[in-house]
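Step 1: inspect the first sequence and its tokens.
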Amino acid sequence: MFKRIISVGDVVTSYLVKEGIIPFLSIIDGKTKRQVYVNNIADSKTIHLRNEPGVIRLSVMERIRKILDDNKKSTLLIDGEEDLLVIPAVMYGHIDDVIVYGQPNVGAVGLEVSDIMRWRVKDLLSKFIVKKCNE
């Protein structure tokens, strides 16, 4: 059984909530296929952060780590794009957490956090280019 559910994406989060499954952490940007898509999640603190498309900001990674370490149910509302934030969710999720994210025009993907998945994600992240973001 999974300890916690982490959802990344507006549509998949909406479907989970509609089925009565409230994610521990929801990461949304309020848009689906760049169309405005607003999603309110009860019983969760909403935190607004900026993360540009094609980027993973260090500040966002640190906030995801803090939320997952502090064990406080939250929603991150991203100004920009949330797609790549599956990566820090895997890195900082607890073993046996499950991450559910949307695959456009296909459906949803469920990914169980494990040491092997963390290794794969860290390997992928090591290939990223690190640059200073504009404030």
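Step 2: inspect the second sequence and its tokens, then contrast the two.
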Amino acid sequence: MFGGSSLSIFSYYLFSAKIICILSLILRLSLAREPKFMQIKNGDVKIMTTAKEKGESLYLSIPCDKGWTIKLNGKDVQTQMIGNCLYSIPLRKGKNNLSMHYRVPGFFKGLVVTLIGIILLEIWITVCQCFKER
């Protein structure tokens, strides 16, 4: 009586309810104000916008990632996530200057490991050449 089909129907309705919640959130977010100025260049994003009321947020279609450093009016800001993937940034009343900088997570660690590998390879080649000459 309560076979696999009723479980899959329940899962479908649960999934549909989540989709409806996300779509309603996106609809509310799409009614938000657009930025007055936006510049995107080489991993840097600069945005100027104005919040008329306290509690307004700027919703960005930039995926959340640990590599982003986000500052609002020159100070670090605590961001919120939309749908567990996009940024929502709370604004202060009045003019807001937002700057975002992206740095690939683990870039410097990877660079150090690569340089160590190149140095070790060079040492290995030099040692092998010394033994061949003898």
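Step 3: confirm your contrast with the notes below.
Residues 11 and 104 are 37 Å apart (CA to CA). The first helix runs from residue 4 to 30.
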